[in-house]
Amino acid sequence: MKKRKMRTQKIRWKMIISFIAFNLVCVTILAPFIVFWGPFEAIKVMAVGSIATSRHPQVVQLFLSEEKISEIMHTYDSAGASTGLNVETAQVMNDPSSGITIEDIKGQNFKGKVMLIKDPTRIKVAVTQEIGVAGERLSDFVKDTNAVAAINAGGFYDLNGKGNGAFPDGLTVHNGDIVHNNVDNNQVNLIALDKKGQLTIGDMSADQIAHNNILEAVTFGPNLVVNGQPVVSGDGGWGIAPRTGIGQKADGTIIFVVIDGRQPTWSIGATLRDMMNVFIEYDAVNAVNLDGGSSSEMVYNGKVMNKLWNVFGERYLPTAFVVLPK
């Protein structure tokens, strides 16, 4: 009798496990179709925008045509057509002796941090010490350069599918020298600082680096504010995601912005329009979008200031903007 009961319980557990496994398989198979074709507009826009602008856009291309992807990513263009500033700020840290101020920011769908650095000449580009082999964590960049703060900077390309931040994309400049170039002499959108700490954003080739007295630079985009004018059309067409950006005020103050995302109970993320609005709120004359997603991070005094989306912790990156001590 006891053996029969044990056998019955085993059969029951097997049935339960089989049922759970069957449902997990069904959910896994059906999930992409529910997300990409289902009735949940906000989820669809966020998912398509996040994946299509990531290192693996082919995932969404398996389920949707280029025309449909474009249509979804521009869903909220008309809604974001006006500037419509709606950003709340709250000071976190203001130490006059350090020349750095940090503030919390909050928008309709996002939360993040803004760091203001009074002296722009303190900003440098840090490049992974193992360029071509592996990137570094942002906290490692800070230690390597004896910096007090940092944000992630330019994008990277992936030769071997590892996504380990080994190869910075475009032009990368440090101390006036081009340390990496995978675009020959073609023009790319450069985020550059000259010897006076003036932030320049715009198309530039390798031959123009020395002529323009560029000291530090990385490649990414798109531009958000140029010569005091907002330049994002609609919501930007890049969906909603964690974001990082850099800008500069008329008095030279550098503005670092990091927005958390992909965390529904905390912060969904920002559109490019949202990022532009933040920089306008902080009186940026020039501002540009940097690499985002799981790269978005801010470090100050050895501490990660924002809430990382990556469950594995800090991502390995090719470059960072670091703030050196006064």
Automatic annotation (TrEMBL):
<keyword id="KW-0472">Membrane</keyword>
<feature type="domain" description="Phosphodiester glycosidase">
    <location>
        <begin position="146"/>
        <end position="323"/>
    </location>
</feature>
<dbReference type="InterPro" id="IPR018711">
    <property type="entry name" value="NAGPA"/>
</dbReference>
<dbReference type="Pfam" id="PF09992">
    <property type="entry name" value="NAGPA"/>
</dbReference>
<protein>
    <submittedName>
        <fullName>Exopolysaccharide biosynthesis protein</fullName>
    </submittedName>
</protein>
<feature type="transmembrane region" description="Helical">
    <location>
        <begin position="20"/>
        <end position="40"/>
    </location>
</feature>
<keyword id="KW-0812">Transmembrane</keyword>
<keyword id="KW-1133">Transmembrane helix</keyword>
